[in-house]
Amino acid sequence: MKRLVLFLLIGILLVGCGTSSTNDSDEQNQDGKTNGSGEVTNHEVDNGSEGEEESADGEDNGIIAGKVVPVLTETNPLLYTYEVANQTEKEITLEFTSSQRFDYAVETKEGEQVYLYSSVASFMQALGEETIKQGGSLEFEINLNELDLEPGDYVLKAWMTPTGSKKYEVSHDFTITE
């Protein structure tokens, strides 16, 4: 009888140890994609611009499948929107060591830095993250009206400030006239 109980206990222990591997098909969505943590990332986004892509001359004409695209758009004179659009098939998570999510600089055409946002702003020192869903984006407003720039040609550069990943830098030339 003792041998039977010992045999059953060893059998149960071995069966329990044998189920520690996961079934990869449970963690995949219909396309076979996961987000790295086992969560299914099957988001459908219909943005009405299928088939648009970068033209042969490098000009952006819309969706560029499989890329995270930074865009800097002037919405009003000296008022810009910095947007990071996720055009990949999965969510993108950016991790940060402070409350700062992006930074920007104004430089002369010669490369001399006139203004750096992070040098005059204060940020909380707290870990955080931003997730950009498939087909989604992050947007930040940049107001250069308060800088009292002298007339001349300038370059506005904007970028994300995540730890250990791409910065998604973009630049835009602009001119101040009096």
TrEMBL record:
It holds the Pfam family BsuPI. Residues 47-60 have a biased composition (Acidic residues). Keywords: Signal. Residues 20-62 are annotated as: Disordered. PROSITE patterns: PROKAR_LIPOPROTEIN. Residues 1-23 form the signal peptide. InterPro entries: Intracell_prot_inh_BsuPI, IPI. Residues 31-40 have a biased composition (Polar residues). Residues 76-161 form the Intracellular proteinase inhibitor BsuPI domain. This is Intracellular proteinase inhibitor BsuPI domain-containing protein. It comes from Aquibacillus koreensis.
